[in-house]
Amino acid sequence: MQKTLFDKVWDAHVVSQEDDYPAVFYIDAHFIHEVTSPQAFDGLRKRGLSVFRPSRTWATTDHNVPTVDQHLPIKELLSRKQVERLSENCKKFGVELFGLGHPWQGIVHVIGPELGVTKPGMTIVCGDSHTSTHGAFGSIAFGIGTSEVEQVFATQCLLQQKPKTMKIEVNGTLQKEVTAKDIILYIISKISTSGGTGYFVEFSGETISRLSMEARMTICNMSIEMGARGGMIAPDEITFSYMKGRRYMPQGNDWGKAVSYWNTLPSDPGATFDRVESFRAEDMEPMITYGTNPGMGIKVSGNIPRTVECESKSDKTQLQKSLVYMGLQEGQKMIGQHVDYVFFGSCTNSRIEDFRAAAKILKGRKKASDVEAILVPGSTQVFAQAKKEGLDKIFENAGFELRSAGCSACLGMNEDKIPAGKYCVSTSNRNFEGRQGPGARTMLVSPLTAAATAINGYVTNPREFL
Fold this sequence. Notes:
By secondary structure, the protein is α/β, with parallel strands linked by helices. Helix content is 31%, strand content 17%.
């Protein structure tokens, strides 16, 4: 029987399965952070339980931590309590923690791959929806709730219903200013934020196979924004080259054995998916969102849709409501729209490749004087690498404020919020009302579009600088 990549990994992790019941599903790697773990640890205490396999759990601080003066005591009470509690819990239950001040601290979905914890064929969970990022390595990775975090702590397993499978093929050659962020925003704009509901998505095709691992992570990261349970990409030589030599990777002869196994994971020729969607790379341009969900995106050179173009009454109502919140007009061109903030960061676009790309545009240039530009690396290691390559000087000379690693202005949970009514062009993953702060107006873009926009102070096609 021909199997998909998803089926192969799923079948290898089913501990037991009864008809008409969820499978008992084994979890290889469990990532935790300071926000969704405290209640789960408390649940263990109340039941007198330990963490079943602490060596399979990795912790970091990222969501609610400050990104300025991280070497000083945390001022904000909730953040301080969460960070302190995580440290106490990890010490008590024997979980490895990469906390503030640790050289490996960073956003949970950035440090997993860069440390080599993330590997093909694994099952990976975290109390965070963008755990789908790790699927770029050919793993089944998905977000879970706090009660499920406790389940994994106690048993290293979850009860899971097997989702349907979808294949999204992208073939053709991208224009030089089109990035992975544009690919996924384009796809979501076509199938909607609910188009992937009930599915685990495998991204494939010649366009995808040519992408770097950082680019693949961006695509799988935002698979959740189309409603999918997660996304994955088959491992190949690009995957193995990225992984080799990282801290938690197999070494010596074990590396060769692991690669031999990983090479068996790609979907078999003729494997059947429940749904298939196909797209052409030549149809894609730099993208930008204009509304209040990631599916409300258009080519940056395009115009905001008009209500008369809406296919349903609910679409019309949503468009009207979103434009009121965003302070934009139907039919309006996005190029030239004034922005107040530019945010580089989040688990979507805060890796070294993202900063290298933006630096090519920013080198020798200055941001607009009326734009606040913030750069937050995805990890302490990314920041160190950026400094090693001199990228920090390029951003500083362009007028950017460089901060320490964390989720920052992606989610408005910490001190880094966008003020009400202000426009922020962001390399993050969500643009819901209030996502970056109460009343904040978010437009999602690629690092290239963000860099170009920072220079001009208004929405700009990066082609202008390439």
